[in-house]
Amino acid sequence: MSQPTGVIHDIGYQRYTGPRLGRRPIVGALYVHGLRAAFGLGRSAKAKVFPWLIVGVVAVVAAVLTALRARTGQALVGYAEFTEMLSMLIIFFCAVVAPELVSRDLHNGVLPLYFARPLRRQDYALARLAALVSATFLLLAGPMTVMFVGAAFSVDRLGAVWDELGDYLVGLGYAAVHAVVFGVLALLVASLLRRRAVAAGAIVGSFLLTTPVVGVLMVLPYERATQLAGLASPVTLVGGLGDWAFEPGGEAEIGGYGPLYALTTLGFVVAGVLLLLARYRKVASK
Predict the structure, then answer these.
(1) Lower CB count within 10 Å: N or C terminus of the chain?
(2) Contact 185, 90 (CB under 8 A)
(3) Among 152, 144, 217, which residue's Cα sits nearest to residue 179?
């Protein structure tokens, strides 16, 4: 008579008897998780170092500009210029955060677990994109709000506060454009690579490799080539849009091509989102 060769142990797992949430709460939870992960919240201290270092640098710059304005009574840098001045920091922030949001999941092979729930493939991609865009916007909007509050207390009449509010809202709009354009490109590149370090380098390269093309076009002895040179790079593309839509008097550098910059920016974002969705349809089918 054979003896039993194994023992079944009760390790205390219990059945879940509560309400089962649907697709929308899952997407919301994925978005909140991505937003927290962007700043290293809920993760190790090592994961918090770089994002909060960038947050600290941006905050210090805003505090210095606010203090100088309170002392001199004049704004050395406008809200839109503040975003342009920090464009490289925005790129590095996206280069670190985007791989944390998507490359880690690819590397660990957990996407089938996500899609086993009532979560569509495009839901995952859009939730991650929304988290990256939101985090990038908050990186800029927080310090800009500090600048606005400092400016509001340094003026001596109510009308000046309203003027400052208008400039502040324009600056927030420009920051949102940066967040969307940079976030779309960064997440698209990160979704193609499983290793976070490689993805971060590829993201930075995707922004910087087109810069020499802009430089070559800028030195050509043709005014039209100079005015259209900004279309060749995501950074200068957003800058050209800003010259036309967010900075009074700045459109002289791009001539009458402001609407073309706006349409190109819109096309860039739409194409990037569509490619991102196509990428996750392919990933999920493997």
Answers:
(1) N
(2) no
(3) 144
* Spatial distance between the Cα atoms of 188 and 177, rounded to a whole number of angstroms: 17
Tally of residues, the chain: 286
**Closest C-alpha among 22, 30, 42 to residue 102:** 30
Q: Give per-residue pLDDT as tens, 20-66.
A: 778 888 899 999 999 999 999 888 888 889 999 999 999 999 999 99
Task: State if pTM tops 0.85.
Answer: yes
Rounded-to-integer distance, Cα 120 and Cα 195, Å = 24
Which sign does the torsion angle of CA 41, 46, 47, 52 carry? positive
Distance CA 286, CA 106 (A): 12
* DSSP 3-state percent helix, strand, coil across the chain (nearest 5): 75, 0, 25
Locate the DSSP E strands across 126-268.
Answer: none
274: number of Cβ within 10 Å: 11
Nearest partner of 33 among 108, 97, 95, judged by Cα = 97
Helix (H, G, I), strand (E, B) or coil at 267: helix
If you write DSSP's letter for every residue of 40-64 in order, what string do you get?
A: TTTS-HHHHHHHHHHHHHHHHHHHH
CA separation, residue 31 to residues 97, 195, 284 (Å): 14, 22, 19
Q: Where are the alpha helices (DSSP H) in 39-157?
A: 45-72, 79-85, 87-98, 104-108, 111-115, 121-152
Residue whose C-alpha is closest to residue 105's, from 128, 133, 77, 123: 128
